[in-house]
Structure formats: structure tokens, C-alpha cells
């Protein structure tokens, strides 16, 4: 098993001293106890149940020597620590600042309260009092759950100085964390979506290119797309139409130098929010009524791109790329008929608003 | 009659014999069931309903056949006017007003072209020179000049070397008036054409005369007129329109130089009196105006520019002639049969076109004088994207390379054409360089352009970033990544990568 990395953040470290001054861990306590009692327990002969672990211990002694070179595992943490750790992993965001559940974040371990509050110590349940004192019972059988053979062997190896080894491990873990574990170079803060070669193009750019495609000729469509982007890059910034502004009201002089953003704004600005569906059987009498329904982002863009390409077909420029590019600029300047189509769709949608929610009669 | 044998096993089926055999002859009419009423039904048949379709039969003089609906022709937009598409295709845009002005960018001039501190930087082309460069068609449509504020080229190692070469040939040192001949090769996108553009810019800076053939293919494509040169030489062909175009390019681009030089030689071949004191610009214009005279005028101009001293009677206005730069792009198209046909309808070899022959003869060493007596530079570039398959030419280039590396032509390592491959002896002759008689003349060299170095690539990408096109931090890692992606710094690929706008994660 590889050495555990120290996953605790500063917040989680609050729990540490509480468990470390109690003992190294539950498991190590029991194993230590068992080791001390090994000769006595075997002689007392309490029964086959209890004698089994001890015989295992003694028989595996010779085998365990082979594993001596292995780095021993850090003792298991306290239950609440474990929960904190799990919560930490589950709820963690990229920046590591995500909150865990409040009881884990703001709660104080009872052992700490007991330590500073004498009243509470007095009235504490017996279980907690016993826990504070540490194990004192003289049970002759082990209450720890049986673990795998390998773990038992390892436990035996680390018995003599479990605490010392644990501290060594934490030290090594700390060093490993400092040295970017497993990475030769510092890890990137975040890998952009466009770094993956399958999604190397911008979402909208990809969608627009695919809709430009005719007869499955993607390379031609891509060439046209690059011509369109070059056109957007080189034409003068759009004259803003008073009523038909681009989404977000960007500063127009800077738009041409970011043609992808320019294109995105143009498409998103004329994208309709709804679509009308002619539905039969609502009004009765076989008449179909228009029912508006909402579109998601991709569907909206698809409709807008469709309109833009349709409108560009009526232009007189010689090449497709030129036609589409000119149409895009016309949209940006509010001259295009695409705006009217969008307004019409929205008007019809408002008119058909009453039909939303009606169900077909059967 | 059904056979009584079973079809599959040929055993006789047990057919029940009819106990009473039917009478052999029964009249046919009697066997059919007789209808109960015969006469009345036949005499008065039920009136059938008239079907509508039969009712509307063909009227008088109407076609009976089914009418096919004619498709209405959808009104297609008219095709664009003639020449518009070509103009759009050939359009060269050199400026993008949206792009940022790169601050502190220097221009190519006599100082900067030899300054090794500028290695890896981008030098702008002087605005006043752009018309000259356009005239010699130094810019090509597919090059990405249109996205920058103003055109600029990166100073690579070869550029600096060339700048020093220009400086030496123009200067007063030992290399003054030297002739250097180079065939420029390299992979696709490695900057061969831009290398020639830089050479032209340097030549204009140094006041050289520039002759440029921007596309060698145009001369062998059979797109321009051709005619036998003369009755004496029926196997040589002249292309007068192409020659006039060359003269026109030369006159516009080198106007400043040509208008100061005056005629200093006799030109009997011109068959027209040339006034004394005519400038070379005016001489060139004769050929531009009358393409029939273009070839003799070109020869006269060439004689004038390669004159070292005036002929008798012309001493008055003689000025020493400047060095010359000759550039040819797409050399491989001159190494095969052209698309022209001779009288016997056999293809004419490109070497039989006088225009081509003239420029190829410059690669050969002169007998005693250098080919360019006033010095100069020949830059003939191959093209990797528009290149016919010419095994002989490839071998010739390999031979040139081997010669340059010092391989003995008699040795076994010297590249030879494949056996039975029927090599073109005229093409192989290109590589057959003899030692030049004149010390001022160098043999033909092969210059192979490769990728940029990382420092040069960095300077190039910084130019993109400072123009506002590349929105990324230019770090060593980023440059290294792009350099690798560009096939070890092939500049054409680097340009594509620099142009590609990468949007942050979404």
C-alpha cells in the first residue's frame, strides 16, 4: 500500500492533538495491548476465539520479516476525523475552500470540552470518562476487529515504536506534498476545455462551422469559417443600432480583435428564447394552436445560425464566406432581417402564452 | 395433366382410380355452367354509371397525353460579374486598421538589415516601398498580411546573412560587384517566397534593379500568346505579352533608378532609332506600349543594365549601372515540357521559350565576364505546394547539394538519376556547374530553408501578441510548444498557430 498523503487542511488539523495525545490510534492501542498481553493471554486459555489472533501473531513472525522494508501505514484516524476527511474530499471544490457540514466545521471534540470544563468532566457519562483515562480493563480477549494478514504483520513490525514511525511518516508526507507529488512540473491551475483536442474549438464556433457544412465537407466549412473570422477581424467596428444592441452592450471598437467573442455576441443577440409548436387536440375541433416552449442555449443558437445563413443566401456576394460574413456584420449593426424574425417569434410566443399548460383531450 | 409420379422420389403416387371414367368427349360449351336467364340480360344490359374521368375526354385540338407539371425555375441570384471572383481571389490586403500598432517596430533600411541585434525581431516593410513590392508581385494572396496593421517580416539567420551579402556587393570592399547565385528550397511553409520578398526589399533599399518572375508557372501554362522567335530560329518561341508584363513590373518598381540611367549602347536589333539621352525608363516604356517590341526592348534593357562602359559616342551621360536582383518563384515549372505545342503538335520544352531560356542561362557561368557584370544576386526558389513531379530536377538539386558538400562527381556517392528513368539532359545540365572563369562570380548554390530557431519563433509570436492577435502569455514553454507543433518552427505553421484564437475555458 502506498504511503497515505496528508490530506488534512489547516481546519482539519484542529482534531489532531486530541487524538494524538490520547494515543496513536485505536488500532495501535489495541495492538500494543495485545502485544503486551500476548504471553499472558495464551496461557490463560480463555477459549479458541481469543487464542486465535495470538497464534496468528506468533506464527506470522517469520513471514513478517520480509515486509520489514515496506513503509508502515499511518494509523487510522479518529472517527470524526475520518468523517471530516471524507466530507473534505466529497465537498471539495477546485479552490479547496468549500465548506464541510457545519457540525464538522464548527464542532469541538468532546474530549477537548472535557479537558477544559471540570463540571462537564464530573457529569460526563461513564463511557467518556473511561475513554479519557485510557484503556484500563483487563479483558483477556481482543475487541479489535480482525484485519488482513498483511496489516497484522505490519502492525507487528511497527509495534516497538509506533508513535515514532507515525511521526516519520507524517514528515515524509509533508515533504512529498512540498515536492509536487507525482508531477515533474507544477500542475496547471485549470486545464481549459479547449486544450483537449476533441473540443479544441469554441462551442459556438464548432456549432456554426458544422451548420455551414454542406455535403459533409467539414474542411471546406472550416476554411469558410476562418475566412468569416478574418472578415470580422478586419472590418471596421459595427455602428450600434439604438434599439438592436448586442447582448451585454460591449464596447464595439474592441470587438473585431476578438472575432470569436464578436461572433458569439452576434449569434446570442438574435437567438430566440422560445419556439412555437403547432399542437392539435387542445382547442378541439381538430384545430391546432401554437404553443410556445422554451429552448436551451444550444437550440437557441442553432435557430439563430439557421436564420443568419438563410438570410445570407439572398445576398449577392460571390462566395459563401463573404455572404455570411456580411450578414453577420449586418446583424451586428441591426440592419438584418434576422432581428425581425426574432421579434416576430417572440410576439407569437406572447400571443400563444395562454395555450401553455393545456393538455390534449382524449 | 398432373404426373402421377412424385416429383422428389419418382415413386408412383397411389392415386385413387376413378371408378367410373368420365366420358372422353364432352362438348366444351356444355361443360360451362349455363346462366339462368340468357336472352334478356344480353338484350338489356344494366346501365353503367358514367365515370367522370371518361367523361372529360379530349376536346377538339387538345392533347390527350398526361400533363407533366413543369418545375418553375427558381430565380437564382445572377453570377457575379466577370473577373470579380478572380479579383477577390488575387486581392492582396496589406493592412488591418483594427490590429494594434506594434510599438517600436523598426523598418528595413540599410542599417537594420545588417544589425545582428535585431535577430529574431520583426522588421516592418517601409510604407513607401510597398508600391514597389506590389509592382513586382512580392506579396502572395495566401500569405497572412491582411491581419496586421502593416506588413512586417521576421529577421531570421538567413535574412541577416543575406543583408550582409547585399552590403558587401553594394559596398566598396573586396566583394564589390560579386555575383551570387542561389536556388532556394525547403519544405512547405518554410518562408521561401518571403525570403525573396526580403531580398527585394533590401534591393530596393540599396537602389538595385529588381527583375522578378512572381510565378514561373504562368509562362509555361499556355495562357499567354507565343510565336516563333524568327525565321532563323524557328525552334525558339517568344511570349511577347509576358515579356511586356515583365517590363511593366520592372519599370514601375525600379522607376527611381531607371529614370536616372541613360542609353549607352547601340541596339541594332531594335530596328528603330533611339534618341541619345533617352532614359532607360523611356526605353522600357516602348516595350510596354508595343508588346511586339517587348522582347527586343527587354534585350536592349538587359544590355544596358549589364554594360560596364559606354559604347563609342555615348560617353556623355554614362553612369555606372547598379547591381541586379533576379528572383524567380516556382522554378520547377521551367524544368519540364510546357503546355505550348509546336508546328508538329509536339509539346515545347520550357527551355525553348526565350524568356525562360534567358533567366536560366544566368545560372550558367559566363565565359570570361560574370553573367551580371555589375554584380548582383540570383534567387530562384522552388515551390513545395505547387510543384510538378520531376525526378530529374530532384536529382539535379541533389547533385548540387553533393557538389556543395564536396562530393567528387566521379565518385559512387554522387547522386545519379535512376537507370532507365529517361532523365531530361537539359534539366541535369543545371547541376553541371563548371568553375566560373571570373573571380567575381560564384557557382550556383543550393540554399535550404528550414524552421526558425526558438528565439526567432519567440520574436515572431511576440509580434502576434503585440498586434493583439494572440491573446496568450508568451512564455518559454508556450513558444516551445508552438515551435514543436509547427514542425520544428516552420514559419507558415507558426503563423497558423499564432492566428488561431484560443478562447479560455468554457
UniProtKB/TrEMBL annotation, chain A:
<dbReference type="InterPro" id="IPR036823">
    <property type="entry name" value="Ribosomal_uS7_dom_sf"/>
</dbReference>
<dbReference type="GO" id="GO:1990904">
    <property type="term" value="C:ribonucleoprotein complex"/>
</dbReference>
<protein>
    <recommendedName>
        <fullName>Small ribosomal subunit protein uS7m</fullName>
    </recommendedName>
</protein>
<feature type="domain" description="Small ribosomal subunit protein uS7">
    <location>
        <begin position="200"/>
        <end position="353"/>
    </location>
</feature>
<feature type="region of interest" description="Disordered">
    <location>
        <begin position="93"/>
        <end position="113"/>
    </location>
</feature>
<feature type="compositionally biased region" description="Low complexity">
    <location>
        <begin position="136"/>
        <end position="147"/>
    </location>
</feature>
<keyword id="KW-0496">Mitochondrion</keyword>
<dbReference type="InterPro" id="IPR000235">
    <property type="entry name" value="Ribosomal_uS7"/>
</dbReference>
<keyword id="KW-0687">Ribonucleoprotein</keyword>
<dbReference type="GO" id="GO:0005739">
    <property type="term" value="C:mitochondrion"/>
</dbReference>
<feature type="compositionally biased region" description="Basic and acidic residues">
    <location>
        <begin position="62"/>
        <end position="78"/>
    </location>
</feature>
<feature type="compositionally biased region" description="Low complexity">
    <location>
        <begin position="36"/>
        <end position="52"/>
    </location>
</feature>
<comment type="similarity">
    <text>Belongs to the universal ribosomal protein uS7 family.</text>
</comment>
<feature type="region of interest" description="Disordered">
    <location>
        <begin position="125"/>
        <end position="152"/>
    </location>
</feature>
<dbReference type="GO" id="GO:0005840">
    <property type="term" value="C:ribosome"/>
</dbReference>
<feature type="region of interest" description="Disordered">
    <location>
        <begin position="36"/>
        <end position="78"/>
    </location>
</feature>
<dbReference type="InterPro" id="IPR023798">
    <property type="entry name" value="Ribosomal_uS7_dom"/>
</dbReference>
<dbReference type="GO" id="GO:0006412">
    <property type="term" value="P:translation"/>
</dbReference>
<dbReference type="Pfam" id="PF00177">
    <property type="entry name" value="Ribosomal_S7"/>
</dbReference>
<comment type="function">
    <text>Component of the mitochondrial ribosome (mitoribosome), a dedicated translation machinery responsible for the synthesis of mitochondrial genome-encoded proteins, including at least some of the essential transmembrane subunits of the mitochondrial respiratory chain. The mitoribosomes are attached to the mitochondrial inner membrane and translation products are cotranslationally integrated into the membrane.</text>
</comment>
<dbReference type="InterPro" id="IPR047988">
    <property type="entry name" value="Ribosomal_uS7m_fungi"/>
</dbReference>
<keyword id="KW-0689">Ribosomal protein</keyword>
UniProtKB/TrEMBL annotation, chain B:
<feature type="compositionally biased region" description="Basic and acidic residues">
    <location>
        <begin position="74"/>
        <end position="85"/>
    </location>
</feature>
<keyword id="KW-0689">Ribosomal protein</keyword>
<dbReference type="Pfam" id="PF10236">
    <property type="entry name" value="DAP3"/>
</dbReference>
<keyword id="KW-0496">Mitochondrion</keyword>
<dbReference type="GO" id="GO:0005763">
    <property type="term" value="C:mitochondrial small ribosomal subunit"/>
</dbReference>
<dbReference type="InterPro" id="IPR019368">
    <property type="entry name" value="Ribosomal_mS29"/>
</dbReference>
<keyword id="KW-0809">Transit peptide</keyword>
<comment type="similarity">
    <text>Belongs to the mitochondrion-specific ribosomal protein mS29 family.</text>
</comment>
<dbReference type="GO" id="GO:0003735">
    <property type="term" value="F:structural constituent of ribosome"/>
</dbReference>
<feature type="compositionally biased region" description="Basic residues">
    <location>
        <begin position="61"/>
        <end position="73"/>
    </location>
</feature>
<keyword id="KW-0687">Ribonucleoprotein</keyword>
<protein>
    <recommendedName>
        <fullName>Small ribosomal subunit protein mS29</fullName>
    </recommendedName>
</protein>
<feature type="region of interest" description="Disordered">
    <location>
        <begin position="38"/>
        <end position="85"/>
    </location>
</feature>
Amino acid at each position: 500500500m502506498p504511503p497515505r498523503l496528508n490530506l488534512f487542511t489547516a481546519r482539519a488539523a484542529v482534531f489532531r492533538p486530541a487524538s494524538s495525545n490520547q494515543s496513536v490510534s485505536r488500532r495501535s492501542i489495541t495492538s500494543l495491548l495485545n502485544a503486551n498481553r500476548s504471553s499472558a493471554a495464551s496461557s490463560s486459555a480463555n477459549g479458541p476465539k481469543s487464542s486465535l489472533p495470538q497464534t496468528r501473531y506468533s506464527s506470522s513472525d517469520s513471514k513478517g520479516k520480509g515486509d520489514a522494508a515496506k513503509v508502515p501505514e499511518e494509523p487510522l484516524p479518529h472517527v470524526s476525523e475520518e468523517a471530516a476527511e471524507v466530507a473534505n474530499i466529497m465537498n471539495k471544490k477546485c479552490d479547496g475552500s468549500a465548506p464541510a457540514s457545519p457540525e464538522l466545521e464548527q464542532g469541538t471534540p468532546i474530549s477537548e470540552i472535557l479537558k477544559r470544563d471540570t463540571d462537564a468532566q464530573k457529569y460526563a457519562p461513564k463511557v467518556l470518562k473511561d475513554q479519557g483515562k485510557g484503556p484500563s480493563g483487563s479483558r483477556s480477549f481482543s475487541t479489535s476487529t480482525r484485519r488482513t494478514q498483511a496489516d497484522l504483520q505490519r502492525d507487528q513490525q511497527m509495534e516497538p515504536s509506533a508513535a515514532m514511525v507515525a511521526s516519520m511518516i507524517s514528515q515524509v508526507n509533508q515533504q512529498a506534498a512540498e515536492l509536487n507529488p507525482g508531477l515533474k512540473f507544477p500542475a496547471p491551475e485549470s486545464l481549459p476545455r479547449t486544450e483537449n483536442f476533441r473540443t479544441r474549438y469554441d462551442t459556438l464556433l464548432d456549432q456554426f462551422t458544422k451548420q455551414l457544412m454542406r455535403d459533409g465537407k467539414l474542411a471546406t466549412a472550416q476554411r469558410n469559417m476562418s475566412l468569416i473570422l478574418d472578415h470580422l477581424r478586419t472590418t471596421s467596428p459595427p455602428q450600434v443600432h439604438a434599439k438592436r444592441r448586442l447582448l451585454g452592450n460591449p464596447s464595439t471598437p474592441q470587438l473585431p480583435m476578438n472575432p470569436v467573442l464578436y461572433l458569439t455576441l452576434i449569434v446570442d443577440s438574435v437567438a430566440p428564447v422560445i419556439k412555437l409548436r403547432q399542437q392539435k387536440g387542445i382547442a378541439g375541433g381538430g384545430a391546432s394552436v401554437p404553443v410556445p416552449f422554451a429552448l436551451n442555449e444550444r437550440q437557441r443558437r442553432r435557430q439563430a445560425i439557421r436564420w443568419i445563413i438563410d438570410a445570407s443566401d439572398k445576398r449577392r456576394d460571390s462566395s459563401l464566406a463573404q455572404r455570411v460574413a456580411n450578414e453577420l456584420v449586418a446583424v451586428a449593426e441591426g440592419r438584418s432581417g434576422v432581428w425581425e424574425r426574432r421579434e416576430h417569434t417572440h410576439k407569437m410566443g406572447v400571443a400563444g402564452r395562454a395555450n401553455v399548460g393545456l393538455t390534449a383531450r382524449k | 395433366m398432373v404426373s402421377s409420379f412424385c416429383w422428389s422420389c419418382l415413386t408412383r403416387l397411389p392415386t385413387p382410380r376413378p371408378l367410373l371414367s368420365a366420358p372422353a368427349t364432352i362438348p366444351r360449351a356444355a361443360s360451362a355452367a349455363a346462366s339462368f336467364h340468357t336472352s334478356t340480360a344480353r338484350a338489356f344490359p344494366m346501365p353503367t354509371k358514367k365515370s367522370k374521368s371518361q367523361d372529360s375526354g379530349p376536346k377538339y385540338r387538345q392533347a390527350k397525353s398526361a400533363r407533366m407539371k413543369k418545375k418553375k425555375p427558381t430565380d437564382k441570384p445572377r453570377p457575379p460579374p466577370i473577373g470579380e471572383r478572380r479579383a477577390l481571389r488575387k486581392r492582396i490586403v496589406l493592412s488591418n486598421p483594427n490590429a494594434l500598432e506594434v510599438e517600436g517596430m523598426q523598418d528595413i533600411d540599410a542599417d537594420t538589415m545588417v544589425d545582428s541585434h535585431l535577430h529574431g525581431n520583426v522588421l516592418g516593410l517601409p510604407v513607401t516601398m510597398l508600391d514597389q513590392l506590389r509592382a513586382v508581385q512580392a506579396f502572395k494572396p495566401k500569405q497572412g498580411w491582411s491581419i496586421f496593421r502593416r506588413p512586417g517580416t521576421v529577421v531570421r539567420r538567413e535574412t541577416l546573412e543575406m543583408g550582409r551579402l547585399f552590403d558587401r556587393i553594394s559596398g566598396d570592399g573586396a566583394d564589390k560587384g560579386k555575383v551570387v547565385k542561389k536556388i532556394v528550397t525547403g519544405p512547405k511553409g518554410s518562408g521561401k517566397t518571403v525570403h525573396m520578398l526580403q531580398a527585394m526589399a533590401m534591393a530596393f533599399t540599396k537602389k538595385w534593379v529588381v527583375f522578378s518572375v512572381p510565378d514561373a508557372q504562368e509562362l509555361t501554362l499556355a495562357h499567354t500568346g507565343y510565336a516563333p522567335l524568327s525565321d532563323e530560329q524557328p525552334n525558339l518561341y517568344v511570349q511577347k505579352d509576358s515579356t511586356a508584363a515583365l517590363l511593366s513590373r520592372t519599370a514601375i518598381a525600379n522607376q527611381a533608378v531607371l529614370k536616372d540611367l541613360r542609353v549607352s549602347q547601340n541596339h541594332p536589333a531594335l530596328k528603330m532609332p533611339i534618341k541619345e539621352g533617352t532614359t532607360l525608363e523611356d526605353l522600357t516604356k516602348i516595350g510596354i506600349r508595343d508588346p511586339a517590341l517587348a522582347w527586343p526592348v527587354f534585350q536592349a534593357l538587359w544590355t544596358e543594365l549589364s554594360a560596364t562602359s559606354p559604347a563609342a559616342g555615348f560617353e556623355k551621360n554614362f553612369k555606372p549601372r547598379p547591381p541586379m536582383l533576379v528572383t524567380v518563384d516556382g522554378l520547377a515549372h521551367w524544368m519540364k515540357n510546357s503546355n505550348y505545342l509546336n508546328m508538329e503538335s509536339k509539346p515545347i520544352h520550357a527551355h525553348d521559350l526565350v524568356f525562360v531560356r534567358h533567366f536560366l542561362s544566368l545560372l550558367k557561368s559566363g565565359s570570361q565576364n560574370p553573367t551580371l557584370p555589375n554584380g548582383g544576386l540570383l534567387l530562384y526558389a522552388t515551390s513545395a505546394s505547387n510543384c510538378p513531379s520531376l525526378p530529374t530536377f530532384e536529382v539535379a538539386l541533389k547533385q548540387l547539394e553533393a557538389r556543395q558538400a564536396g562530393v567528387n562527381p566521379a565518385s559512387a556517392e554522387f547522386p545519379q538519376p535512376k537507370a532507365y528513368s529517361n532523365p531530361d539532359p537539359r534539366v541535369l545540365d543545371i547541376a553541371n556547374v563548371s568553375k566560373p572563369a571570373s573571380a567575381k562570380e560564384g557557382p550556383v548554390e543550393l540554399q535550404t530553408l528550414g524552421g526558425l530557431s526558438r528565439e526567432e519563433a519567440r520574436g515572431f509570436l511576440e509580434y502576434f501578441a503585440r498586434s493583439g492577435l494572440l491573446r496568450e502569455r508568451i512564455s518559454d514553454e508556450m513558444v516551445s510548444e508552438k515551435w514543436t507543433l509547427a514542425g520544428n518552427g516552420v514559419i507558415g505553421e507558426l503563423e497558423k498557430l499564432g492566428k488561431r484564437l484560443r478562447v479560455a475555458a468554457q
